[in-house]
Predict the 3D structure of the following.
Amino acid sequence: MKNFLLAPSLLSCDFANLANEIGMLNKSEADWLHLDIMDGVFVPNITFGQPVIRQIKKYATKPLDVHLMIVEPDRYFEDFKACGADIISVHYEACTHLNRSINKIKELGMKAGVVLNPHTPVAMLENILEVCDMVLLMSVNPGFGGQKFIDNSLSKIATLKEMIEKHNSKCLIEVDGGVTIENCRSILNVGADVLVAGNAIFATANPLQTISEFKSILL
Ligand code: DX5
Ligand code: ZN
């Protein structure tokens, strides 16, 4: 059985019961906590920032996987590190000097990922892959939870997997948006290493059990 990591997205959790939600994730089989930071400029939605991340870090026993959907992300790397981020992913579309951004994240002692929107070809990664710890492929247009998985993401994952193998890289492939119990097997089969799921976990009656169902998927 292929091992994969599951990163529940807190975007769909009950924010009024955040400590309980994190407690549930701590005792679950989830691997990372996925935090979606939106600024209302890069994406048409606003979520939360440093003060909330700092509180999450007080309770979480698992790595914080921070997905920045913001313009000029470099301004905040030190801040996010101080709040407890373990992994920071920045959008290719938001970074003019992506190589500098990735190196800065790593110099601060965090893992660094690059995110591609659905319309950005994986070929754009050719000259940045070697410095990345992870590539996050968006399988919906970023901004909202609960959207439908865009099907051509599967061929993007497969192309990226080939590229990673060709470069002999250890870069992980994370897939974010519209991931469900029903489609996760096909996503993993084409090469994904980390799955993000928000709605498919938190909109169920028993998220703890749903996480366990995800993790027991047989490939
Ligand atoms: C979308 C976010 C995702 C989102 C996924 O902009 O990056 O992480 O929370 O939510 P679901 O799994 O509901 O599509
Ligand atoms: Zn995300």
Remarks:
- The pocket of D-xylitol-5-phosphate (ligand 1) is lined by residues 9, 11-12, 34, 36, 67, 140, 142-143, 145-147, 176-179, 196-200 (CB under 6 Å).
- The chain has a mean pLDDT of 97.
- The beta strands are 5-8, 33-38, 64-69, 87-91, 111-116, 134-138, 172-176, 194-197.
- The two ends are 6 Å apart (CA to CA).
